[in-house]
Write a structure and sequence with these properties.
elongated; 6 helices; 154 residues; mainly alpha
Length: 154
């Protein structure tokens, strides 16, 4: 139900803001602001996205929990989508999500409300799994060529 309200409320808020801002500054300045925020927001999103990807890589290489850097990366992606959507309300939310302190606050708020039941890394082994298979010894390239040459001489 809340998703329906969101999909109904956001366009209504955007329309109201367009009418209000357009009435104060005019049509063309309003459209110029919308285009400018999309351009500036996209460049900010690229920069923040690069920072988030660096943090994700660092967490994987340091064997740390990647949850927070992944959440920051997801929020940067959402911010980009909001900035590309025309409107003042969505642009405001998108620009806020590009601020690292805001993303950290949102992450902490979400983490307090989400309970993770299991978390594991790597393959799972129950101990009962048996995999049958065949194998063939593979020789280095030089030995393989010699054996092929010998086979053709006979």
């Amino acid at each position: 139900m809340w998703l329906f309200v969101l999909f109904l409320a956001v366009p209504l808020i955007e329309i109201a803001l367009f009418v209000q801002v357009g009435g104060v500054i005019g049509l063309w300045p309003t459209l110029a602001i919308v285009v400018a925020t999309a351009i500036v927001g996209t460049s900010l999103m690229r920069a923040q996205g690069a920072v988030a990807m660096g943090q994700i890589r660092a967490s994987f290489s340091d064997m740390r929990d990647p949850t927070e850097p992944l959440a920051h990366g997801a929020m940067v992606l959402i911010a980009g989508m909001l900035l590309l959507t025309p409107g003042f309300f969505t642009d405001s939310i998108g620009l806020l999500l590009l601020i690292p302190l805001v993303r950290t606050a949102v992450f902490r708020w979400l983490r307090a409300r989400i309970k993770i039941q299991t978390f594991s890394t790597g393959p799972r082994h129950s101990g009962d799994d048996v995999i049958d298979g065949e194998f063939e010894e593979v020789r280095p390239r030089d030995e393989t060529r010699q054996s092929v040459t010998r086979l053709h001489r006979h």
